[in-house]
Amino acid sequence: MPIRTATTHRNAPVRTPARRGLLPAVALAVLAPLALAPAAQAAPGCGPRHPATLTTQGEGKANVQPDIATVSVGVTVQAPTAQQAMTDNATRQTAVIDALKAQGIEPRDIQTSGLNLSPLQDYSREGQPPVITGYQAQNMVTITVRDLASLGGVLDRLVTAGANEVQGISFGREDAQATQDEALKKAVENARHTAEVLAEASGLELGGLVSLNNSGPISPPAPMYRMAAQDSAAAGATPVEAGELSFTAMVGATFELMGDGAAGPGKCDWQKGGRDRKGGPREPKPPMEPPVPTGAAAGAAAGAPGDASAGVSEPAPVTAPPADAAPVPPAGQPAPGAAAPATN
What we know:
26% of the residues lie in helices and 26% in strands. It is of the alpha+beta class. Among the domains are: 67 residues, Protein of unknown function (DUF541), domain 1 (Translation Initiation Factor IF3, 2-Layer Sandwich); 105 residues, Protein of unknown function (DUF541), domain 2 (Alpha-Beta Plaits, 2-Layer Sandwich). It has a four-stranded antiparallel β-sheet. Strands 2-8-7 form a three-stranded antiparallel β-sheet. The chain has a two-stranded antiparallel ribbon with strand order 1-9. Strand 4 and strand 5 form a beta hairpin. Helix 2 runs antiparallel to helix 3. The longest helix is centred in the middle third of the chain and has 25 residues.
């Protein structure tokens, strides 16, 4: 009997079509650079126009007469022992403070500013350690005199009372805010005046104020006054000239410039240039051309406008054979129902 062989039919796998939701996204990704490329190439300036600005410095000064004086006075004594030096100093300094109060100096204007006790050493013996020969005591007070007309007389009476140290005098203004404000106003006016002159020389007009900064009023220099105490008593009343105080303010101001040529277009990054490796100017690089779409992207670009999925082809779906279809025999074998070849 001829033997017939049968093969088991297996259904081929069914491929499902790609999701349509992904097609518009793919088409948009391809078409977006093409749509934006003409707008990018059409911008001649590659950036907004920036207005020109001008920055100047202004200085203002305002003078005022001082109304207070600050002076440091004190007593310095020497004695064979430290105890004796401190006792003698305390006696004389007490007399000085009493003289200050008698001149109308209020206790709030008297402040101890220094108290020192140091040994006196003899270095005259060569190759030998120094020898202590005595001690020196010093007591200083800082006073504020509000009546400048009486300042010279106050100093003379202090020396008479026992003071032998006058280290310096400084003048000030108890209420200097108005003078400082005047200096600031003059500084701003000076900065604007300088900007107007520069703008006119450039053929432009001065615009609005962009920024203004203040470095702060500079404290007036304190005029120092030194005197020899032993000479002042013999010379009579000590002359003291208060003069004037000068407050200085500095400001920086930035203004806009108006007129033809006061502004220009901004530069692209590739136009800014630079330096090559040899130190010479680098040639500016032109803007990059947009990529040319190929394959499916080219078909998407050629589609109808407004339809992101136009021109994008979908793979043909593969369907399974019918359930009652005869199985396909392997190569070299007869189909089912066919007569087998005769064998000898």
